[in-house]
Design goal:
This protein is α/β, with parallel strands linked by helices. The protein is built from 15 helices and 17 strands.
Length: about 500
């Protein structure tokens, strides 16, 4: 049964509501729990406080279902480098979930997963494989005796089928459902065969929270056992249309098509162009949803990850020859495609498009100035050689050219970047900033320490004075100094600093 995204969201919710589950709206991408990762990256994350007993479960019966927007980018969960090259990695994705808080357990979770897969979705049961934990005899027996699933297509794994929330807390074995895309995509041997990862693709994970791991590492049975499942919407859609590539699913395919029209580059014309078009489609959703949920591009934490995603999209478009702003165009397409499922996108559309447009305008100026210098520097490096760290640091320090962009461009042309040399140059600059003494009649000491702390937190200010004499900027810090003087730290500036024998610029700051 071929399905589209809006249909799958609906049939998923209807199936679980009919079985006593409360339909819970998706949580924001900025987690509320203090110990949570940077972004909401799983369907169960909004329910953590119920699973660990910090809050009373508000659902009667204690069951819930959701279609949760998720982002995995940065930190432990970072798939950015694989996006566009892998047929199934995404930085933004939707996780379908059904949850039980001390209510039903393995038997119902397994039976309903099979029912939804084979009856609601109409999948061929003969092409489904199952994995269970090596010690979970109960789950294997339920699959074989209750569902009638053939034992020869059940494989037992160890760590891959044991889920833990952290070093301590609820945990338990899991059972995963895989779809067999056929021998043309890999050898036989089931999902336990590492060489067959493209043939056997996981589309649903059933976690049985039945233990609690204490500080001593020992497992003890939970009094109230929980169910936490996650099914990838894009992967299930791919299964229903017979494609192992999530970019063939309807919403992502529409975004690839919009990227194609915006760039003038045809999908299938060149492998690297295909990577760029798919990356643009993925990043369109990620940056649109993050900005809509209140993340602002910046040089720290969530804002830095967002900025990197935006800039990667812009850089890939730039290398395809796109001169006009593309992020607002992709955001508008995302909102058009997904606004019915996520009304906040429509409500925040003007804000999203405006923020992305300004960020792109600023970064395109940086690209224009930095790319020429990088091109010249790479011409002086022998084929397959290494770009000096001092050059990469100069691009970063003087032009605001991000190290990761320098690295991506260099590696894309067969070069490496001297990262230790870059780190040494950065450390030397920070040491100079901390050094006491006098320069040009300006006292440094406590003030220098404060400025160095801002540098550590926010990074260097982007210098744009070679292109413009006025610019919009964000105030990062205001640092009081001696003799009534005050230092204002900006994220970008057209003012040249007093350095190298050249007198610093003067000018004015005006509030918006």
């Amino acid at each position: 049964r071929t399905m589209r995204a809006h249909e799958l969201r609906r049939v998923w919710t209807d199936f679980w509501v009919a079985r006593g589950h409360t339909d819970v709206p998706p949580a924001g991408l900025i987690p509320l729990h203090p110990s949570a990762p940077m972004f909401t990256n799983s369907g169960m994350m909004p329910f953590v406080t119920y699973f660990v007993g910090e809050e009373t479960v508000p659902f009667d019966p204690p069951r819930a279902t959701s279609v949760q927007k998720c982002v995995r980018a940065g930190g432990k969960h970072n798939d950015l480098d694989a996006i566009g090259r892998s047929p199934r990695h995404l930085s933004f994705f939707e996780m379908l979930g059904n949850f039980s808080f001390g209510d039903y357990f393995k038997a119902d979770a397994i039976r309903w997963a099979w029912e939804f897969s084979t009856e609601t979705l109409g999948l061929d049961g003969d092409r489904i494989w199952v994995t269970c934990h090596v010690d979970d005899d109960e789950a294997v027996e339920l699959w074989v005796d209750e569902v009638g699933f053939p034992a020869e297509r059940i494989q037992r794994l160890d760590k891959d089928n044991f889920w833990e929330m952290g070093e301590t807390g609820p945990c338990g074995p899991s059972s995963e459902l895989f779809w067999d895309f056929g021998p043309e995509l890999g050898p036989d041997g089931g999902p336990a065969n590492p060489a067959a990862e493209h043939r056997f693709v996981e589309f649903w994970n059933l976690v049985f929270q039945q233990y609690f791991r204490g500080a001593d590492g020992q497992l003890s049975p939970l009094e109230h056992k929980n169910i936490d499942t996650g099914a990838g919407l894009e992967r299930i859609l791919g299964v229903t249309i017979g494609s192992h590539d999530v970019f063939d699913t309807d919403e992502l395919a529409a975004l690839v098509a919009r990227a194609t029209s915006a760039t003038g580059v045809r999908l299938g014309a060149d492998p690297e162009s295909d990577v760029a078009l798919k990356l643009l489609a993925d990043h369109a959703r990620t940056m649109t949803f993050l900005v809509s949920d209140g993340v602002i591009p910046s040089n720290e934490e969530r804002g830095y990850v967002l900025r990197r995603i935006i800039r990667r999209a812009i850089r890939f478009a730039y290398l395809l020859g796109v001169e006009k702003p593309i992020t607002p165009v992709l955001a508008e397409e995302t909102i058009s495609l997904m606004g019915d499922a996520y009304p906040d996108l429509v409500a925040n559309a003007d804000t999203v498009v405006g923020i992305l447009g300004r960020e792109e305008e600023q970064f395109r100026r940086t690209l224009r100035s930095g790319l020429g210098i990088l091109d010249t520097a790479l011409e002086e490096v022998p084929a397959g050689g290494q770009l000096p760290g001092t050059v990469a640091f100069s691009l970063h320090d003087t032009y605001g050219f991000p190290l990761e962009v320098t690295t991506e461009i260099a590696e894309g042309r067969g070069f490496t970047v001297d990262r230790p040399g870059f780190d040494d140059a950065m450390a030397e600059q920070r040491a100079r900033a901390r050094a006491g003494g006098k320069k040009g009649g300006i006292a440094v000491g406590d003030e220098a320490s404060a400025l160095a702390a801002v540098l550590d937190e926010h990074g260097t200010t982007e210098f744009v004075g070679r292109e413009v004499f006025a610019t919009d900027a964000t105030v990062l810090a205001v640092v009081p100094g001696a003799e009534g003087r005050t230092s204002v730290l900006l994220d970008r500036t057209p003012f040249y600093a007093e350095s190298g024998g050249q007198v610093g610029d003067t000018g004015t700051l005006a509030g918006a």
